[in-house]
Amino acid sequence: MSAGPAVTPATRGPLAIIAGAGDFPPRLAALAAQQGRSVFVAALDGAAESRCFRRSRTPGL
To answer: What is the pTM of this model?
Structure first.
């Protein structure tokens, strides 16, 4: 049995977060981004504070 390719944050697909209130969603997004992971956040209107999420675009997406 052979081992498959190494799984790293950069080789995984994007992380999708459905964000409500609190500091966990922006902290999770920042940590994942620091580890090289693409992050998509769907902030719930009236619950999540959009100012807590930094907006950036990756060319080609």
So the answer is: 0.66
